[in-house]
Amino acid sequence: MGEVLAALQPIFRDVLDDPNLQINRGSNAATVRGWDSLAHINLISAIEQEFSVRFALGELEELKNVGDMIDLIERKLAAK
Amino acid sequence: MRIADVSVKLFLHNQKAWRREFRSRDDLIDVRVAVLAGSTANEVMDFIELLLLDQGIRPVFYLSDYDKYFEEAVLDPAKLIAFRPNIVYIHTSSHNIQGTLPLEGSDADLNAHIAAESGRFASIWSSLDEKMESMIIQNNFELPPFRLLGNFDAVSPAGRVRFINSLNDRFAHEASTRRKLFLNDLHAIAARIGCKQFHDARRWFSYKIFTTPEASLAIAKSVAAIISGIYGRSRKCLVLDLDNTLWGGIIGDDGPDKIKIGRDTALGEAYSAFQEYCLQLRNRGVLLAACSKNSEQVARQGFEHPDSILQFHHFSSFKANWEPKHENIKKIADELNIGLDSLVFVDDNPAERELVSAQLPMVAVPDVGSEVTDFISALEEGHYFEPIGLSKEDLSRASQYESNAQRAILQSKFESYDAYLESLAMTGEIAPFKQIYLERITQLVNKTNQFNLTARRYTIAEIERIASDPAYITLYGRLADKFGDNGLVSVIIALKNRHQLHIDLWLMSCRVLKRGMELAMLDSLVAECRQHGITEIYGYYMATGKNMLVAEHYACLGFEHAGESDRGSLWKLRLPEKYVTRNKHIKELVNG
User: Checking CA distances to B82, which of B10, B69, B185, B548 falls within 20 to 30 Å?
Assistant: First the structure.
């Protein structure tokens, strides 16, 4: 499992309050229980805090699944 | 770990788990909170919920449709009315201000614009006042994220900064004249965080949340503090360490002339400033207590220093000895007759803080660090002593506790307790609720825990309704003695049911324990019963974990145990033909 995915796993479990949740690159709001629009806001905030990154408005709109998130986070971390 | 101290990051991670854990506790009171929002409010509400749960309050929320705060309060309030809120929180911001002035606008145009906007909000408050009994918490306005006219924005009638400053002034005036309206000072919250860390345009355009998560948490802390204050959960006493907390240095080692206090050094000035802050807290009703590892004689010398702002007599309780601090803090709470959850402890030593916080989790122990210059801001961040107004009792509270100390000295000189009570020359006033006392009654109802038979809580609106409802018999009691006026100290609320009277609430401030005031209250209650043709009085004792003190209250007054009910144990007093009054020591009892 990639480093970023491994770091995302506990964030998703905590924020969505599901200790058994397993996410992968394909996971999205439709397939993960509890991932509604309000949980999405909390996920984004928690991810930004965790990785000390900040997503731009346009980038936020492009995040359709966990894979998109991982790619974006990796791009942000590489640019640091 | 206290919820109030955790970071946004921890909050985001753990809020769902914490909520599950907290909501299942059984010592919570339910408060119905309607949020009328001009933006997406869920994040702020999540934070408020956890902060309140931590204070023993379980909020039940109602959230208006997005940006329908005006409509649901004024035009179509049926849903809101049906929710029966105890609190309505109007979460609006500068984003909700309607209209702007053209650059050529005059002062007259500005005033008209202010009148229109404040009028729009006033119609919300008036509508809520008319339709429900709730308390209202209203945000004022933060400065906008940009200043079109730069510094001149605060000067020009067309400037947004000037407009918001003027509108906030108007809101302050409204909040000071409307009793059920409380202001949440968004302007100050944003200023403390800094406007740049407060606004988040990205989240505004994405989710219609106008704040950063940090700002949402700061807003939630402020609102939770106001709600806690309304329900009497504000803290009452600041417990202070001495060495390196109230002065620089160790008085036992350095000697009273070497401690750092006063104008001679920067460090001394900083300690003076902190002492001044503590004294100002005391002057507005927060009790001070000292808790220090020292001999009392040595510790007191610190306050005899010519530059000391605090004096020994400013402390309502003074513990300087070699016992562990948590033991002393328990004694302070006992001595002042307040709960451990009313205390805030400040000590520069992290080891002492950790000990107290582990041994006494109810005591608030802010991480003040070890620098005196950080103490005040740590206390401010905690919102511990949030007042919901300033009553006469608040302003004289500390001196009342001083009189208590004098009474204790007097007591030790008398042969019998009766002789002591007689010597106090007590006078009382007991009568049905009067308009001027309703605020004080509400305050007492919501913060009295020990001498409180049922611990039922009421909002000011409920108290107002009960005061004018002929189905109820209400009594308040005031007590004075030769050392001073204790003010309004006892309350009874009882509901009539033909020839029966059911006592919903009987409470008394612990500062007048063992003075015979409860006997005088019973005498007056019986007199009221006679007038209303009541022959049986029923009392209830509902154990809350804090009111053990009055478990035998009704038995002591001669009530018979009449079984258990869903409102606790039931006690009955059948009024005899000829009732002999019980009160012996309280004279010049004014009734009605």
Answer: B185
CATH number at residue B168: 3.40.50.1110
Residues of A with CB under 8 A from a CB of B: 11, 14-17, 37-38, 41-42, 45-46, 49-50, 55-57, 60-61
Decide if B12 and A15 are in contact by the 8 Å CB cutoff.
yes
Instruction: Give the pLDDT confidence of B43-63 residue by residue, as tens digits.
Output: 999 999 999 998 889 999 999
Q: Based on C-alpha coordinates, what's the Rg of chain B?
A: 26
pLDDT per residue over B51-108, tens digit each?
999 888 999 999 999 999 999 999 999 999 999 999 999 999 999 998 888 888 899 9
A and B: number of Cβ contacts within 8 A: 42
Q: Domain range holding B539?
A: 425-591
CA atoms of B164 and B161, how far apart (whole Å): 5
Q: Note the pTM of the prediction, 2 decimals.
A: 0.76
In terms of phi and psi (left: phi > 0; alpha: psi -120 to 50; beta: otherwise), the region of B212 is beta
Structural contact between residues B267 and B246, judged by C-beta atoms closer than 8 angstroms: no
3-state per-residue secondary structure call for B208-273: CCCECHHHHHHHHHHHHHHHHHHCCCCCCEEEECCECCCEECCHHHHCCCCCECCCCCHHHHHHHH
Regarding whether B273 and B125 lie in a shared domain, the answer is no
Q: Which amino acid is at B373?
A: T
The CATH number that domain A3-79 falls under is: 1.10.1200.10
